[in-house]
Design brief:
The structure is a single chain. The chain has one domain. It is built from three helices and no strands. It is elongated. The two termini are about 15 Å apart. About 5% of the residues are buried.
Length: about 90
């Protein structure tokens, strides 16, 4: 939606303020924490991951890498949503 600025600039898009509560550093923090969490779980459960992907043969390492990457993305998303919920950005007025 195009709304003018307070200064009267007609037609320019208003600045997007939804991310003001988390900021760039917050996004990076969620990404690093998600990656560290998944890395720690991968180290702890590595033998179970190997046993789970062993039937895939040659594709077992590919499946493991894709699974870990998906887990990092899911952890990152979960942390971002939790941060937004905690900051109260889930409520729309």
């Amino acid at each position: 939606m195009s709304t003018p600025y307070q200064s009267g600039g007609a037609g320019r898009d208003a600045p997007h303020r939804d991310d003001a509560a988390i900021g760039r550093a917050g996004h990076y923090t969620c990404a690093v924490l998600g990656g560290a969490l998944v890395l720690a779980l991968t180290v702890v459960y590595y033998s179970a991951l190997v046993a789970l992907t062993r039937p895939l043969g040659l594709f077992s390492t590919t499946a493991m890498v894709l699974g870990v990457a998906a887990a990092v993305g899911l952890a990152w998303l979960t942390l971002e949503l939790a941060w937004a919920w905690r900051a109260g950005r889930h409520r729309r007025s």
